[in-house]
Write a structure and sequence with these properties.
By secondary structure, this protein is an alpha/beta fold. 41% of the residues lie in helices and 17% in strands. Helix 8 (207-218) links the parallel strand 8 (192-197) and strand 9 (223-228). Residues 189-339 form the Glycosyl transferase family domain.
């Protein structure tokens, strides 16, 4: 996790808010630059010093096994939920030794990530299978948020696998957030405002959004691109966008500002090929903005007919944007919101509690306004 990792941070905070609303105590342990123990939006958040993983643009991983083990002993949890299987797989053994029910949440496709970095897809898949099998053996439950994400475990015949979609804050993100004044900062009357919202890292393939814009402009579509997010490939992306109407606004910590941008756009692009859920895309739908997604990812499963899936290249993504723009604006915005309303946090939290073998609450347990 980094200070600017939006999707995972949002998911963890919203799940924690839901657990607390259901009457449980929630403690979040995260890696960071310095130690801290604080209450954030009603949740206890413990930060452990952790090194930056080279080449990731700031991602930190927890490597101090002894220190974390002592903390877990001190906290004595009833349930353990782990969202990082890179350095924390041992926590499943800790949970089993201490009689604690454990869950590993797969927030990424290990096969997909390894294929990006490896010139040998067959070797990448074999390594992913070995690591995934170990993860499944280490924990009582493995939770995946989409069928696409679950596929790499199903091919191993994993029996302790559960599919639970994440949710979206339907109150914080909505078509009513659309603001003509905000839109006017980036696009003039008659221009098409295209939005890319996500971390600027290699696996997200943000350059495809720039390539799609170039194709749109070449075809005579008066499109402009706003890129929300930061990451290790920003400099290269800025160079790639030279001469094109691309505005880089960086990481936006204010969730209300992000919601306004999403609602004020005409189309969002989510070009990453290994997205296992794509929370930013779902937030766009909740804002009434249709999404063009990479057909190789899990996002077609999430956006349904409220968006379009295309091959992972600029021409294909641009063609999908044009097809979406051919739909009447009121129809495409209504369809986007209707699709998002299938993914409330109430259902997501209830699903995670079932996976934890905790009784489902009867009251609303959705993401609180303070979660970011």
């Amino acid at each position: 996790m980094t200070a600017t990792s939006g999707g995972l941070r949002t998911a963890l905070r919203c799940l924690g808010a839901g657990y607390r609303a259901a009457g449980h105590e929630s403690v979040l342990i995260v890696p960071g630059a310095a130690a801290a123990d604080e209450v954030v939006d009603g949740e206890r958040v413990i930060t452990l010093p952790a090194p930056v993983l080279p080449g990731t643009g700031g991602y930190r991983v927890l490597v101090g096994r002894r220190r974390l083990g002592r903390l877990l002993d001190e906290l004595a949890p009833d349930r353990l939920e782990v969202s990082d299987r890179s350095t924390l797989r041992w926590t499943g053994d800790w949970a089993r030794a201490n009689g604690v029910r454990s869950m590993m949440v797969s927030h990424e496709s290990l096969s997909g990530l390894l294929r990006i970095w490896s010139p040998r897809p067959d070797l990448a898949d074999r390594l992913a299978d070995r690591l995934n099998r170990r993860s499944a053996e280490a924990y009582d439950q493995v939770v995946c948020t989409t069928d696409w994400a679950a596929a790499e475990f199903r091919r191993l015949g994993v029996g302790n696998l559960t599919r639970v979609p994440l949710g979206v804050d339907l109150a914080a993100f909505g078509p009513d957030r659309r603001d003509p004044a905000v839109r006017a900062r980036y696009a003039t009357d008659g221009e098409v405002l295209v939005l890319h919202c996500g971390r600027l890292s290699p696996e997200k393939r943000p350059q495809l959004a720039v390539d799609a814009l170039a194709r749109l402009r070449a075809a005579g579509v008066p499109a402009v691109l706003v890129v929300v997010g930061d990451g290790p490939v920003r400099a290269a992306l800025t160079e790639r966008a030279a001469g094109l109407p691309v505005r880089f606004v960086g990481f936006v910590p204010d969730r209300a500002a992000v919601a306004t941008l999403l609602a004020s756009a005409d189309v969002a692009i989510a070009p990453g090929p290994v997205e296992t859920f794509g929370l930013a895309g779902l937030e766009a739908l909740a804002s009434g903005t249709p999404v063009v997604v990479n057909a190789a990812s899990a996002l077609p499963e999430v956006v349904g007919d409220a968006g379009l899936a295309a091959e992972g290249n600029g021409p294909a993504l641009a063609a999908a944007v044009r097809r979406i723009l051919d739909r009447p604006a009121t129809d495409r915005r209504a369809a986007a919101r209707a699709r998002a309303e299938r993914f409330g946090w109430d259902a997501a939290v209830a699903g995670f509690l079932r996976a934890h073998d905790v009784p489902r609450p009867t009251e609303r347990i959705g993401c609180q306004d303070g979660a970011t």
